[in-house]
Design brief:
disordered N terminus; alginate biosynthesis; 9 helices; alpha/beta; transferase; globular; seven-stranded mixed β-sheet; signal
Length: 342
Amino acid sequence: MTSAPDPATDVYEGRDGWLFLIRGNNRVLEQYGRPGVSRATLWRWRRMIETRARRCARLGAAYFHALAPEKLTVYPERAEGLAFDPARAPALRLARWLTASPGARAWIDLAGAFRAQTGGPPLYLRTDTHWTHQGCLLAYRTILSRMGVPPRDDLEARRDQTALSFSGDLGRKFTPHRLEAAEGTGIASEARRIHANSLLLDMEAMGRGGDAHLGTHAVFRNDDLRADPRRLVIFGDSYAQHTAHSPVATLTALFADRFREVHFLWSTGIDWHYLEQVRPDFVLCEMAERFVIDLPPQGIRIERLAELARERKIMGADLPSPGRHPPDAPASAPATAGAAPR
């Protein structure tokens, strides 16, 4: 059943109960219209990606930039009855702006990869903004291919595929919650977390590890002989993040299973001081497509982001329900810092 868009809600229900984020802080649906994401913003993104690639090269690292595409970009036909132009998707427009740019070498076209696979198993959960295991696996393989690193070929044999009753970040906006049956995404792996910053540890001690978002910092080590011996640093958001919330699949868990060492920093801004200390082989910025509407702040430090997040979440200014993963979080620093567009 298809419902008409309701101006009072952030969610649109399309065909067969598929839910789509259409509003929120980042005004998702507007980004598919005109003017959508401004030409000036796309130009600044082009220049930022070029600069990041050059700076990483000076540190001996290869930089890659990937947008986690919106469900509207990948499955426009399932948003039946919703007026928007999928050809105006921010990921597609930014890819065009990078044509003939030095930054094109850093660009990973997840939108194209996903749109080419829509005839197979679902790549997104019906009630959530995030990927199924198949969607995450597609992103993982696409990114590794651009890095020139072969994926592990035994992931399916090590995955817990137990079916679960699940209500995602969009499904929980309804009363009663919208449910779906979804397979688990956890894999048996030799990867182990060897560092977590105080924000993450404190949130976990409160039983709210799933609410540790912006400012979270974790490091994983994998001593499996089959692990690639190189080091990867990820600046990302909930599509990568520090842990998998089965059945929501996340990239960091898969990369930690592939590389000897993976560092995850929940930020779409780059902490250059951290990269100078760590000296990785690869740097990946992963971010939700909807965050293209604003540029992240310059000169971020992960410790400062963590302090700001602690003030909001632990000192009582921001107390979401346990296990909630906001589908429309700001792409940059908390508004309380006065340092970031949302």
